[in-house]
Amino acid sequence: MVCDNDMFHLKSRNCYLVVNYPETSWATARQICSEAKAKLAIVENAEQITILDELVRATYGYISGIIYWVGAKAPVNGDTWEWLDGTRVNSKHLSISRNEDILNPSCLAIQWKQLRNTNALRWTAKNCNHPGRFICQKPSVVIPDELNKTVSQLSGNLTSVNYPSNYLNNLDYIVEIIGPPNSRVVLVFHHFELEWQEDCLEFMSTGNSAYMSFHSDFSTVSSGYKASWEIVDLSVCFNRRLLILEATHISSLRYPRSYLTDMECRLTVIASEVTKRLLVTITDFDLRSCEEDYLEVNLDPTDEVKLKLCVDDVILGTQLLAYGHEAQFLFSAASINTMISLEKRGYNLTCETWDGTALETTLYLKSNVKGEFTA
């Protein structure tokens, strides 16, 4: 077990910091501890009373009557003390002297004072606005036996050591994520505080495995990272055939999240009856430029009647009517020079059989555009 900050001292299973300067109110002391991802010290057993006593005695000037704030408080005129975690102060462990400021909320402090002709450290109630030193406390960190690891589950979560508290100095480890053949790894960072990023980061592998290497040096530490991974099955892109029995959504992999790049995805849709024609409606279309990504639709596989749909050409709501009971789709996404994923949703279509009745089409036009409609 270790402390995640060199200013704290390991005592039993907790880490403690005695702050001698500046002397502050109880509320300010609590805030300062919180900013260090700690809390004002609490007592759960007799051992911790001894630890706090030793910490105070190790500071300079404690016999002058200076108070040391800890993490308990009582209401006005009340004798019920509670620690910051909501548990009650155990009177078997602590005998609290409260003989002043009873008309104000009291906060708990340790103070060197005389009682029955004996000088000793006492647990005493003080006005919460009284200036005092304070003791911060946080759990110690248990370092895993093996930081380097390989994971093969289809999804999961990863965090830095001690997250959401500070990670440790001088760490070096590698996490390998391996999916089955014909898959890709998508790694999403929901929190990333090494060098701050305002938005979450998402990375995509070019194969079925990904490596994440973490390194921390001897200097500043922070809360680290929280990430999740997802294995995306690419086998659905290998000339898949889909029978249309009812209105069905056809979309890019991971829609409406970022689609994968450096790939082709092929799909053939077939009406449930050979006498029926297929009707395709474009409900969403968010790709990069046509030079990079496009969706090719073949409305008559027997005669190669193909349409190349690009982001600048598509109007949402557009309907495409196949010449027969079958249509083919080819989605092509070019590679990019980084593993960082796109901020593009991809496409979403609705495919259904057409019963021969009149079609009613609603188009969703962008502002400040013009063009022509043709049948």
Automatic annotation (TrEMBL):
Record-linked Gene3D superfamilies: Mannose-Binding Protein A, subunit A (3.10.100.10), Spermadhesin, CUB domain (2.60.120.290)
Cell wall biogenesis/degradation found in the keyword field: no
Domain C-type lectin, first and last residues per copy: 11-137
Keywords: Disulfide bond, Repeat
SMART domains referenced in this protein's UniProt entry, alphabetically: CLECT (SM00034), CUB (SM00042)
CDD domains tied to this protein: CLECT, CUB
InterPro entries registered for this protein in UniProt: C-type_lectin-like, C-type_lectin-like/link_sf, CTDL_fold, CUB_dom, Sperma_CUB_dom_sf
Domain CUB: 237-354
Cited SUPFAM superfamilies: C-type lectin-like (SSF56436), Spermadhesin, CUB domain (SSF49854)
Coiled-coil ranges per UniProt: none
PANTHER family found in the cross-reference section: OVOCHYMASE-RELATED
Full protein name: Protocadherin Fat 1
Gene this protein is translated from: FAT1_14
